[in-house]
Amino acid sequence: QDQLVESGGGSVQSGGSLRLSCTISAYSTRTLAWFKNREGVAAIVADGSTTYAPSVKGRFTISRNSAKSMLYLQMNSLKSEDTAMYYCAARRCSWWARPDAVEYDYWGQGTQVTVSS
Fold first, then answer.
1. pLDDT tops 70 at residue 1
2. Confidence band (pLDDT; 50, 70, 90) for 47?
3. Integer CA distances (angstroms), 113 to 9, 34, 65, 74, in order
4. Long-range contacts of residues 5-11, Cβ cutoff 8 Å, at least 24 apart
5. Per-residue pLDDT for 2 more than 80?
6. 4 near 90, Cβ under 8 Å?
7. Which long-range contacts (C-beta less than 8 Å, at least 24 apart) are formed by 2-5?
8. What pLDDT, in 10s, does the model give residues 5-46?
């Protein structure tokens, strides 16, 4: 049973926008994050705080709706270097905003974002 399911990826021209969504059905999740290619973290939302990779800061916004068990990533001013598979990830027990993929317990299947120049 999938516990994190992403949607919203697609192809867009440079300068465009996309909104990624992640439906969360895992029993317990604390810190949530979006990763590029399961390697580099793009954005993290922990207990009332958000953290962004320098490459996306000011262009991407991460948000969660706990009541709806959803995680979002609003991606604006997209660049070709943003092209990647984006994964939703969750930590089961910790509120620490860790950037390392190995710290995350649950992963989605990924959604592809392609930005053409």
1. no
2. confident
3. 5, 13, 22, 12
4. 5/88, 5/108, 5/109, 6/86, 6/87, 6/88, 6/108, 6/109, 6/110, 6/111, 7/111, 8/111, 9/86, 9/111, 9/112, 9/113, 10/112, 10/113, 10/114, 11/114, 11/115, 11/116
5. no
6. yes
7. 2/108, 2/109, 3/90, 3/106, 4/88, 4/89, 4/90, 4/106, 4/107, 4/108, 5/88, 5/108, 5/109
8. 999 999 999 999 999 999 999 878 899 999 999 889 999 999
Q: What is the pLDDT of residue 48?
A: 81
The strand pairing partners of 50, in sequence order, are 45
- 76 burial (CB, 10 Å; 0-12 / 13-18 / 19+) is middle
Unique residue bearing structure tokens 């959604």? 111
Give the pLDDT of residue 26.
Answer: 83
Angle CA 101–57–65, to nearest 5:
70
